[in-house]
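Supplementary Note 3. Input sequence used for the single-chain structure prediction.
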Amino acid sequence: MKKAKQPKCKHCKERFTPVRSTLEKHCLKKECVAAWIDTCHTYTERKKAKDWKVKKKKMKESLKTNSDWIKEVQVVFNAYIRQRDIGLPCISCGLKSGAKMNAGHYRSVGNCPSLRFDERNCYLQCEACNSYLSGNLIEYRKNLVKKFGAEFVDFLEAHPKPKHYTIPELIVLKEVYKEKLRSLMC
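The predicted structure, written as discrete structure tokens, is reproduced below.
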């Protein structure tokens, strides 16, 4: 019968005979045992730090207000709209490249919050039209009518009932648009 090879100590690298188990990784010299104890403490400290990060993240999530969640969903929604309309020209002026493109709402978020996360109210728009020309709404409207018809634009212009999103609704919306964005990027 072939005799098993003695393991090497992880600390001093010398071969040793295991006392309690063949899975031992350190010999019984004082400095090797001390090194092993330090390794255990380091592992425990890392575990505690990881647990604290998870707990802290949950605490931060619980402290978020409705407006914090709306801002987060808006960022994901806008990214989705920019990705959905990538390669299309600005809905207002027709500029196709060379400009920073935004997700421009036909009915503004402040004016009609119920259409804030409605994909039919938001299209790719160049920075100049969206920011400096306040949405360039006359041209935006003309192009919406050309693209979808007057009935569609009348629907957007009708004053829908105000929508107040709850935090659970916003969490779901954020996940929905994250997933839609992921599927577009694949």
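The chain has six helices and two strands. The longest helix spans residues 30-63.
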